[in-house]
Design goal:
Layout lengths: L3 E10 L2 E11 L4 E6 L5 H8 L6 E6 L2 E2 L4 H6 L2 E4 L10 H8 L6 H14 L1 H5 L10 H13 L5 E5 L7 H18 L2 E6 L2 H7 L2 E6 L2 E7 H6 L1 H8 L2
Parallel strand pairs: 3-8, 3-9, 6-7, 7-8
Antiparallel strand pairs: 1-2, 1-4, 4-5, 9-10
The structure holds adenosine-5'-triphosphate.
């Protein structure tokens, strides 16, 4: 059974559809990247899956219907790293605690805070600072760590590279790949940086004005000149 099965997903804003019936599958432990131009509907897809906007169509997690409320969805093991990070201007530690709001196991929460502070040492160094005082890259790491605090089986990452220096982006993607390898956390990543995302992905979906224009294993997108020329622009 697939971890996430999306069939005919439609969503939009104020009665205007942006997604026109998209279907995609994420298997357990997969790294899936959704590529697409500005305005294709990538963020809308993530927001619909996280319950931040309404949706039509069928979405199942481990064979069960996806909930409607964001907190229900987090409890089902799906956690979003939103575009623009969305860190709160409270301390780094408190941001991490917010990420664990659906959990009650205080010891486990404390252990996970320690773990992510080890993986992202800057979070330990700045534990008591307000998130707003962190650099963009540091805030992105905090946003990822916060999302991981709910112990998701699927992490949704909306343009994690946006506005970050190349070296920081490389480090972040390496860490995401490592988390996927060690914990088996599946990743669904929306990215404009196709090259980088394809380095860690096994499956690619191409989104064009609200529909899936192509999909397949990452090798096909790297090696097929027609696909590359038509969709990736290199
Ligand atoms: P980008 O890389 O620019 O974020 P995207 O693929 O993520 O692009 P979306 O943000 O999903 O695209 O936007 C898809 C369409 O939905 C665009 O036409 C956009 O103008 C529209 N849209 C996005 N957010 C809203 C909103 N809050 N209200 C109304 N329309 C919106």
């Amino acid at each position: 059974m697939s971890l996430l099965e999306v069939t005919d997903l439609t969503a939009g804003y104020g009665g205007r559809d942006v997604l026109h019936g998209i279907s995609m599958t994420v298997e357990k432990g997969d790294v899936v990247v959704v590529l697409g131009a500005n305005g294709a509907g990538k963020t809308t897809t993530m927001r619909a899956l996280a319950g931040l906007i309404g949706r039509r169509g069928s979405v199942t997690v481990d064979g069960r219907p996806l909930g409607r409320r964001p907190d229900e969805i987090v409890r089902q093991g799906i956690s979003l790293v939103p575009q623009g990070r969305g860190t709160l201007d409270i301390s780094v530690l408190d941001n991490l605690r917010v990420g664990a709001a659906v959990r009650k196991d205080q010891k486990g929460i404390a252990a996970d805070i320690d773990r992510w502070c080890e993986v992202f040492p800057v979070l330990a160094r700045r534990a008591h600072q307000k998130a707003g005082t962190l650099s963009g890259g540091e805030q992105q790491m905090l946003a990822v760590a916060r999302a991981l605090m709910s112990r998701p089986t699927l992490l949704l990452c909306d343009e994690p590279s946006l506005g970050l220096a190349p070296i920081v982006v490389q480090e972040l993607f390496a860490t995401l790949a490592e988390i996927n390898r060690t914990d088996g956390t599946a990743l669904l990543i929306v990215e404009q940086n196709a090259e980088l995302a394809m380095d860690i992905a096994n499956t690619v979906y191409l989104l064009e004005v609200g529909t899936i224009a192509a999909e397949g294993p990452v090798e096909r997108f790297r090696e097929d000149d027609t696909v590359r020329g038509a969709y990736l622009g290199y």
